[in-house]
Amino acid sequence: MHDREARIRCYAELNDYLPPHRRATPFPYGFEGSPRVEEVVEALGIPDTAIDLILVNGQSVCFGYRLRPGDRVSVYPVFESFDVSSVARLRGEPLRRLRFVLDVHFGRLARLLRMLGFDALWRNDYADRDLLAIAGREQRILLTRDRALLNEAGLVRAYCVRSRKAVEQVAEVVARFDLVSRIRPFSRCMVCNAELARSAKAEVADRLRPGTLRDHDEFHACAGCGRVYWKGSHYRAMRTLVETLTRTANPPGAGG
Ligand SMILES: [Zn+2]
Fold first, then answer.
1. How far is the CA of 159 from the centre of ligand 1 (A)?
2. Which residue from 232, 196, 240, 197 is spatially nearest to 214, judged by alpha carbons?
3. What confidence score (pLDDT) does residue 1 get?
4. What is the 121 CA–ligand 1 centroid distance (Å)?
5. Which of 63, 80, 130, 168 is deepest in the core (most CB within 10 A)?
6. How many angstroms does the Cα of residue 251 sit away from the middle of ligand 1?
7. Residue 248: CB partners within 8 Å, gap ≥ 6?
8. What is the three-class DSSP state of 60?
9. How far is the CA of 12 from the centre of ligand 1 (A)?
């Protein structure tokens, strides 16, 4: 028996290193003495190169931190996640941005990710070597279902999307990377992935039909391709998707 206990939670793909009962949930960790947190994650089977941030009781610590009884330890990979972003807000400074590049089969998924505000680079003519180069150079997470590509990925960060339908795929990616709190509708162009900016009616009037102008007052224009977005039928579809994703992430009765 260990006479001391801390609680540990691992985030996003770090859970792949853990047995199922320890994934995505805080679990008790018994220890003796005051091991360094580096030794703790090694004992859990997580390579230190996969870790970007460790919080103990809400404070960022280095690998040399020595564990104390009652510590609450959160271990993060390089991806920004729900809990990291809330910490970042407390600090008043953003951490990293989470960005994706998608293989040629994921055009619909790319549009849905953009609709939710996520940076999702996609083109229907990217070759495998392009995808790997972009993922490496721009530190994007490669989304693919191509096993050969995943095997070649090497040091590139990649995730194998398992779902078949686009709506299920976006739910899978949102759940996988804890993205629900980071959904920002009307922030990114579904067509070209550039960011949108709130625009005055007069600025976009020449690009809209009279009926649209008459019925709407809030417009967002794409800085990349010039498309204009407003809260039409597309917006209702998006609201439905966001509600579904939020419900899936926080099922009733699931608690904290
Ligand atoms: Zn655009």
1. 26
2. 232
3. 66
4. 12
5. 80
6. 34
7. 171, 175
8. strand
9. 30
Amino acid at 62: C
CA of 113 to the centre of ligand 1 (A): 14
User: What are φ and ψ of residue 55, in 5° steps?
Assistant: -110, 135
For residue 97, the CA-to-ligand 1 centroid distance in Å is: 20
Q: Ligand 1 centroid to 139 CA: how many Å?
A: 22
DSSP 191-253: TT-PBEEEE-HHHHGGGS-HHHHHH---EEEETTT--EE-SSHHHHHHHHHHHHHHHHHS-TT
Q: Which domains does the chain have, with CATH numbers?
A: 4-91 (3.10.20.30), 99-184 (3.40.50)
60 Cα–ligand 1 center, Å: 38
For residue range 87-117, list pLDDT tens digits in order.
443 333 333 568 999 999 999 999 999 999 9
The segments of the chain whose pLDDT lies below 70 read: 1, 78-97, 153-156, 233, 249-256
**Which residues have C-beta within 8 Å of that of residue 116, sequence separation ≥ 6?**
170, 174, 179, 183, 184, 185, 238, 241, 242, 245
Q: What is the pLDDT of residue 96?
A: 52
Residues with CB under 5 A from ligand 1 (ion): 189, 191-192, 194, 222, 224-225, 227
Rounded CA separation 193/136 (Å)? 19
Model pTM?
0.63
